[in-house]
Amino acid sequence: MRNLQFASAFGLLLLFGSCTTHPDPRVEALTALADSIQTHQRLLEEPSDTRTAEAATWAENNLREFELLLDDGNVVVSKEEGRIISDVSRARRLLKDQGSRRTSLPKSAARAMGQLRGLAQAITSGAAKDAAGTPIDSAYIAREMKAELAIGRDVVRALEETQQLAERGIELWQKTAAHADSLQTVCRSRLAKAIIEGE
Q: How far is CA 122 from CA 26, 72, 140, in A?
């Protein structure tokens, strides 16, 4: 009797084992990248919009102030002082670039995730045609996978780079702010002296 029960249990295990479906590696790759994009979107939350906007405003205003002080050629700065102005300019460029990316990337990320998950669903369901009525065969899947995976990886890379741009811009702001304020004071003094001497 025990042998019969064991044989029955073993038979059920074989039956269940034969019914188990192995995950399609193509679906796994598409889904994993879509999940990665969703996770990477959180990178846009740090540094915060408020923090980056404050840094961008500082860089914009300070660069304009230096341009006004140096515009007529009456104020001359040393190489070391020039590096401070260069850092302000670089901070402005970094923060401006990340700002435009923060606006456009959420839409790009949403589209990429939709395409990746849609293709994964089509493969899983064995769909015969796509939304446009194009037949879905192995060549179609291979072509679309190559394109959508490339786009998805580009989005992930762009999200990472955007956070890096913001962090570098804020770092320059924090490092340069006090030096920029001091240099502007010096430049205003030089400008006032040049105006007095020119009268």
A: 11, 65, 11
Cα–Cα nearest to 96, from 53, 64, 63, 66: 53
Which two tokens mark 51?
């923090």
Q: From the first residue on, what is the mean pLDDT of each consecutive set of 10 residues in the chain (199 residues)?
A: 44 44 86 95 86 94 94 89 96 91 92 96 90 90 96 96 93 96 95 81
Which string of DSSP letters, residue by residue, matches 103-143?
A: HHHHHHHHHHHHHHHHHHHHHHHT-SB-TT--B--HHHHHH
pTM across the whole model: 0.75
3-state secondary structure of 64: helix
Distance CA 34, CA 119 (A): 11
Say how far apart CA 34 and CA 54 lie, in whole Å.
32
Sign of the CA dihedral with 80 first, then 83, 85, and 91 last: negative
